Amino acid sequence: MKKVSISVLIVILSIAVVAELSAKPSWHSSKRSGLSSDKISISGDTRPQPVYPTPEESQIVETSVGQMFDKSDEPSNRVLNLDDCIRLAVQRNKRLIAAGYEIDAARSQLTEAKALLWPVLEYKYRMAPVPKDVDDAFNKFFEGEVTLFNSLHVGIGVPISSFGQLHTVKKMARGGVEAAKVRKVSTTYDTIFQIKKIYYGIQLAKEMIKLINEAVDGIEKKLKEEDAKEEKNMDPYDILRLKVFKVELERRLQEAGNNMELAFEGLRIQMDFDSDVEIQLDSYDLRPLIHKMDAEQRYIDVAMEHQPNAKLLDVGIDVKREQYRLEKFKLAPKLGFGFFADVGRSVGFIRGLQSTDDFNDPFNYTRAGVGLQLSGNLDFHGSYAKIKKARAEYFKSTYERHIARRGLSLEMKKAYLTAKRMRENVTRSKKAESIARQMTFLSKMNVDMGIGDNDRYADALKFVLLTRGQYFKTVFDFNTALAEVERRIGAEKYTELISVPNMSEHEFFNIESAEDTGFEYYDDDHVDMEGIENED
User: Fold this and answer.
1) pTM confidence score
2) What is the DSSP string of 312-381?
3) pLDDT tens sequence across 88-127
């Protein structure tokens, strides 16, 4: 009785493995600027070496307006690891540069609020024709009997006190500056997370493409062997089935290649490189991070204290409270010191002036004054309504902050539990792969001794391929989950709460140590496919 080719089963399983590629990492896009075309190599160093800003060092996070990335700072050898990619993204990413402008805009508002004791100069100059006879001004003007009049008004005011209004506005402006800084920190963390997700995604795609390529090569080799034989060992239906599967795999392979190219383009965008800049990874090996996490509650506490979104909630409450106070302070007047000077001159003599006119001569005068001014606007009805509105918004924001903080705590808890679960999944998937290899070894040995079942051997090979693909997907999920935890608490706090044990991957994940032999079971030196098919 003929046996179905092992290659058929390999192809069937390969399609299942290719489905893992559907879980593509997302990439955030931003507009790019120019950079000279060159080749850049990126190594696979995944050690936790944060070289980017922290919330406690917001002055480092801030990018001054107009301060762009200096190309002379680039390494001369142009060999970059993951941390270098993060550094370049933090320095060059357009979203972060835009966030720097937001900080400068907030600081300008703070400068505007510091108006106390700063003099304000008011000036006004007028030049116009005036009639020479004010007794018949209308007719004389249109008859052309006019002369030229010039006037200049200069006033200088110095705010002395606003009875709490300017002080409150300054506190609100400071809150705006702090909010802009926190938003830039949040954008920085998001950018770092995207870089890591893309980086690990490229490694995952490369590993999966390798699996598919080896399956396609096995099918092509088997088809050529069958075409070269005069007496076919495979059923014509199975041969056609192999060809259909090969076409499907090639389609999936092209799709995977396109996705990986998109990932590279996303990496260029994050680092603000042109599309013609060639980027390659020195190592495409996807390996799990050896990070040991602390207790769950510590992560939640640190996130509530240092997470940018949590800080934004506090800043928002402070601003709402100051807005409420400001509306009450608006009922108070404003006190200032002022000086003014008015000068007016006409070119010719003007008839008909009377002593009742302004300063006896409205067209030729010099006057000045100095003193205090107290001004205000009392609208009790409108002011009371605004105060009630500000009070309601302040109380509303306090309740919303309470709910939002609980939501942030829940998100941190979810990120922590996901990372812990992904670590266990890495252990499970690695054990599953180890078991599949043992199944392959035992079934192959039984076949060689003539007591085995070829179908079982084929199933064992199928499980090896499936578990191998699942292992890579799980490693990607685990590394990405750790990056999500880091995004929520910041790089500095993340480094404090995790440890990097001095142990191997197999020791850390509590799995049996074994050499990574890849797909050696499919090589001719290890598997005699033709012999298996011809055995009874």
Assistant:
1) 0.72
2) HHHHHHHHHHHHHHHHHHTTS-EEEEEEEEEEEEESS--B---TTSGGG-TTSEEEEEEEEEEE----HH
3) 888 888 888 888 888 988 888 888 888 777 888 888 999 9
